[in-house]
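User: Is it possible to get a 3D structure for a protein together with its bound compound? The compound here is iron/sulfur cluster. I've pasted both below.
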Amino acid sequence: METYFIETWGCQMNVLDSQRLEGLLQQRGLRRVAHAEGADVAVLNTCSVREKAVHKVLSRLGELHGLRRENGRPGVVGLCGCVGEQEGARLLARSAGLDFVLGPGRVSQLPQVLDAVAQGRRTSVTGFPAGPDYDPDTIARGSSARQYITAIHGCDQHCTFCIVPTTRGHESSRTLAEIVAEVTGVVERGGKEVTLLGQTINAYRCPATGADFGDLLQVVGAVPGVWRVQFVTSHPRFFTRAMVEKIASVPSLGTYLHLPFQAGSDAVLKRMHRGYTRAGYLDLVAMIRTAMPRVTLSTDVIVGFPGETEDDFAATLDVVREVGFGQLYGFVFSPRPRTPAARYPGRIARAEAGIRLERLFDLQASIQLELNQAMVGRTVELLLDGPAKRGSALWQGRGADNRVVNVPGWNGIAAGELATVVITGATPHSLLGERREPVTRPA
Ligand code: SF4
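Assistant: Yes, that's possible. Here is the predicted structure of the complex:
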């Protein structure tokens, strides 16, 4: 085996897991190729948060099987991530072209699984080990200036619609010392922006010292060379005033805060088992904005949750209007296997849920346009990611508030550079900027 290909679906956790898988493949001497048809090993790192994603993965497996029949490649096909954990060995029975299944709690076992496959044994390894399955030294992080670092594995919240506690296991925090050592290493290798990851990141509690999430951010934000620190995903039930004040005091903190509210009606929130009310959520937003006046909030919303009435949905739109989110990720309720909400009565017809989602997106687009237009004339500092599209003269970067800014390219520009720009134009989903002066890297 000489080459590998990885396709990543889903969230930032999966992006990081793909880097872990890549590191293990590279340790075996494999090099990355751009297409599955040129790979000795092809890995699909999957997401099962929504039903459609599972169908897409199964259809992609069928395509890879077809490629192998025609060209003999990819030689080995593996499926990792949350679909692997959810379906396990059943997938081997359903998909003849699949050689192995590896759950997100078993990433480090990839080498043993490849050995088993080489000996002709189709293999499924899922479940969660008693100890940690995470080795920062084997992550192939590449040269990106943006880097993800896990602070908490798993989730114990059991929101009634969510499959994540099943596919990613129990919540467990890494020690503050481990996280800081990883952040230090990342920055030494050129990282500038560090995003701490966890399904409920603000539930963080260091198992060695008892430090909470506010303490963690203060320490990580002070690591020399960290230009910006971000985090996802916060759960409204875990913020306290003391924690918010600690977070607000971190000078390198980004101004973007993702705070899912999911639904604006207390009845729906109760059936979702979210652990807060609409009023509690709005009080928290006010508390955060008092402590961090420049914060841009983003959120997740589910529409068409079982039993959601038109009044319930109107309450969701009210919260969207009242808060004025900078970004919103909206989804139609998707019943996931073995979750309580999948058995709830009152399923909303797909067409009706789709209409509600469009109404939500229309409202959000008008809010985003207004917020983005208010940025025109302001100076912002960007971390540049690269051309907006392949071959484009426009380059894309993000400011501290995570908003996408497109800027005309110029000679000598490179991904990972910092740039100061003045905002000159706005659409609902992005900003246009003009460069003003070169910015040097922080010491
Ligand atoms: S907090 Fe709720 S929605 Fe988020 S991962 Fe955990 S169970 Fe899922």
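The radius of gyration is 22 Å. Residues 3-125 form a domain with the Rossmann fold fold (CATH 3.40.50.12160).
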